[in-house]
Fold this protein.
Amino acid sequence: MITLTLLTRTDCTWCSDGKQLLAGLSREFPLSVDEVDLDSVQGRRLAAEHRLLFAPGLIAEGRLIAHGRLSARALRRDLTRLRPTPDR
């Protein structure tokens, strides 16, 4: 399972698009997505820790892998790298 944290904001078009993109990619990859509001205490802490400048932000394995308008092509590449293997 690939565990992701998606940092979002209310009324954020790119956040909505990112959620839809991840929902589609979940048919190709074993994803677990934890959505965190950037206006929450946890969201502000994660944004500061990862130096997120604008929403959405996507964190995997403790590092920010994407932010802003998410790209299907780039995410597919990153998720392929993160895909669990039998020894993982």
